[in-house]
Design goal:
Dehydroquinate synthase-like, alpha domain, 122 residues, 65% helix, mainly alpha
Length: 122
Amino acid sequence: MAHPLGGMFDIPHGIANAVLLPYIMEYNIPSCPKRFNKIALQMGEKTLGMTELEGAYKSLDGVIKLSDDIGIPKNLALLGMDINMLDKLVKDSMKSVNVKANPRRNTYDDIRGLFINAYNGR
């Protein structure tokens, strides 16, 4: 998803990934909570007494806090993404081999929803 953002809107690849990260994590957590629970622990999040899934969502909290601390923009609109280009962004994203490598199977509508969420922000 970051590649077409860079190509279409000249958004630096690392910044695009950083803005997208919380939205992608939230989407993927249900498919591999054990991995995300480990991330939460490595980030120093307190997960004691939580289910594996609850602990996994603490990784999301940690990434959002870190993003805020280091000044990552909160949404793609702030980076100049044109929402009118949404369908082209999704089509270009679906061409990536990363779609198949993602831990959770995704569809055109899933990717579209992720872009909309990342555009609107939290």
